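In the laboratory, one determines a bound structure by crystallizing the protein with its ligand and collecting diffraction data. In a computational setting the workflow is compressed into a single prediction: the sequence and the ligand go in, and a structural description comes out. We illustrate the idea with magnesium ion.
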Amino acid sequence: MAKKYIYFFGKGKAEGNAEMKHLLGGKGANLAEMSRIGIPVPGGFTITAEVCKIYYENSKKYPIELYGQIESNLKKLENITNKKFGDKNNPLLVSVRSGAAVSMPGMMDTILNLGLNDKAVEGLSNLTNNPRFAWDSYRRFIQMFGNVAKGVPHHAFEHELEEIKRRVAKRKGIKDADSLVQEALNRQIPDTALEVDDLKMLVKHYKEIYKEYTHQDFPQDPKKQLMIAIDAVFGSWNNDRAIAYREINNIKGLLGTAVNIQMMVFGNMGDDSGTGVGFTRNPSTGENRLYGEFLMNAQGEDVVAGIRTPFPIDGLKKKNKKIYEELQNIRRKLEKHYKDMQDFEFTIERGKLYMLQTRTGKRTAQAAVKIAVDMVKEGLINKEEAIIRIKPEQIDQLLHPTFDEIEEKKAKVFSKEGLPASPGAAIGQAVFSAKDAEDWAKGGKDVILCRLETSPEDIRGMNAAKGILTARGGMTSHAAVVARGMGKCCVAGAGDIIMDEKSREMRCGELVVKEGDWISLNGSKGIVYIGKIKLISPKVSGPFGTIMKWADNIKKLGVRTNADTPHDTKVAVEFGAEGIGLCRTEHMFFEGERITSFRKMILAAPEVRLLRQALEQENNPQKIKEIESKLEGPLTQYLNALKELLPLQRKDFEGIFKELKGKPCTIRLLDPPLHEFLPHDASGQKALSKAMGVPLEKIKDTVESLKELNPMLGHRGCRLGITYPEITEMQTQAIIEAALNVHKNKIKVNPEIMVPLVGNVKELVLQKEIILNTIKKIKKEKKIKKMPFEIKIGTMIEVPRAALTAYEIAKVAEFFSFGTNDLTQMGCGFSRDDAGKFLGDYVKLGIYKTDPFQSLDIEGVGKMVEMAVALGKKARHNIKLGICGEHGGDSVSVKFCHRIGLTYVSCSPFRVTIARLSAAQAVIEENRAKKKVRRKKKQ
Ligand code: ADP
Ligand code: MG
Ligand code: MG
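The predicted complex, in structure-token form:
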């Protein structure tokens, strides 16, 4: 039997179903599904995405069987509709619609009313007794076909439409008809004001335009029209917009697009007809209420095109109560069936409702969370499903700052007429083209993209902008839909703004905003302000808090944070951090006066080391004395500087311990190379010399002596503590004394001291000895018999050699923390600072699936981690295992950490909730996979 390339749907039946998205595309699969569950859908058929693949692999030729299958499915469609394709009295008209497995809004164009020609238009006119409608459909068809299938520019047709409208305006005696600007003209003469003769004239001119651009007559044979349209859909799979969309959204592995050929239903048959789009719940807030927009006497894209401003769906209640109720019923039916919020499109033909599309609705993170929690309460889904549905990357949006309310009240309003199209707050400099948005953002600037309206060509600029503002279009306009998808703040359709893209400025009443001026957008309220408004950090509460509570009950992996200050610690604990996994002590040295003390230490340290080395080699007592006296000065300076630093560090640790109230705190000893703390430029060195009263030469010499060819592999990490043991001593002393002080105030403490960059167990042995001796000294000094809290000593695993020798290291270390930044750097051999030059290409070519510094390279670096885990557990069964690289906040990496049995992940405060959610999802996914295996075994 020939391979099946086409699936039919209609009259309450369908060959396909919702599970077949890969083959039928989202649109086709759901048209089939809706048809199956008894929702009114105009009949039609879907050509599979596989044909698209074959088309491209086979130098744009179709499998030969396709033609016959199109014929027979057209027959079927004719049978159920009682119309005939190409008939001049009772023509079957169809739409030709693209649709891939993943929805790509606005990416591929639809052709409506296909099947019309010079004869059929007369037939349709007679049959419906509605010539206006017939000719309106024909002019739309010529324009869409010309534009989508043949690339005739829109403006050519639009220009013609404008001409006709001017003529109508004159006829109606409207003053200045010739000089009206386009917007005013459209307002006075909407499309619906054109009469039959105007439309006939338009059709005549449109056909001329078509010929002018294509050098061909407008095709009159419907079968020819259909094949050209199908070609166009498959062709659009690889147009620039579609490619850009797939690139930005990282969409890979699709066969191509499917093509849907569907009987037309007409929303442009008069005032009892119309078209609209809707969501089963509010996609912006998640509120459980029908939401959408509609237009009467309109077809297809009119609602989203922004030419006429659509009405909120509630208005349909007044216009046609029966249809409104029916939509409510369908909304409930869809949700009950799909168990998720749906985004749908509908058309009313002479008082009868048809559904033309449904799909899982895109939503803001805020709505996603509310809908998931509500659906659990309504019994539609369970908690696990609710958790799985939230995309961890989306959580980021909930953590976006909002405006400080008091500051916002005081701010200068530019426009209040906009719609709250995508929530959040954004500040940026105004730019007026997508290209500028891209360029400015590349130059490191925050921009707000301001446009009359956006179109798919703007997508890269929209992606680069902090926020989007449009003067035209509704809640389902291109700008609004895309911004919500991107999680980007958007104010749409601010009708009081005069957007002058050419002169790069916009006006609202007296106020003017020029290119480069700062503005602030409130996407939750639809307000635009002049200037910058202060932002405040978000909180975990409401439905978000509920989801996170559920997640915590399910997850097994601990989630800690990387924090160096009491403030960061506090923020992270509020986000649910269960401790600190990485406290970097060096950041503390940069603040205020400390850097001076630290630099004093650095300026003396190298000399101390040289003289000490000399002493070791010297036997001559006279010389020894000489060296010792030389050593005295620098050594005093070195030790004094450390003494100055001790109380400062102690105080920092006290602050952090107080915030943690007994939660574990892993503190890493000094890690970066010393030269990072000295100025490298002449002016900085001069200033330092002056401030410290040290000769400039001395500073230059030190900088010179500390210079390294490859600092990443140089004198850093525990290598510092080994050559300068006093630093380790001072830091240990600060940690332990801080812990004792806090403990004295009846606050629990749980310090863990971490030695960085160990590659050889002997390094750890030496450092541990210093740490233990320091503790012993403190105990003796303070006459403490037994420390009143536990102190763990462990190491980072970030050098490949450490991963390989983890068995030996675990005998000395009580915990491992995988420093996956360095482990990736040394494991892949990519310098973190230079990899940017080629990694982009590597990802594009698929050498690495994603940037290994952002998402753990599971096959390579991950293997080292797994191996070290196994070896570590073998040597010490209760060893604590964590990860503290950037990867601790990356969802995929977190799930990997769960699978290999780590104790916790640690990430920056703002990623803590992402990690918690990912950890819960890891458990749920694991359970589901196990269930699947069990089910398979049973079969
Ligand atoms: P998109 O993928 O951009 O949403 P669609 O294929 O859904 O494009 O088509 C856009 C619009 O065209 C639909 O929302 C609907 O209003 C109209 N449309 C498509 N097919 C038909 C049809 N068979 N009858 C009436 N209107 C249609
Ligand atoms: Mg659609
Ligand atoms: Mg490191």
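The pocket of adenosine-5'-diphosphate (ligand 1) is lined by residues 42, 95, 97, 106, 110, 112, 262-265, 275, 300-301, 345, 347, 356-357 (CB under 6 Å). Keep in mind that any predicted model is a hypothesis to be tested, not a measurement.
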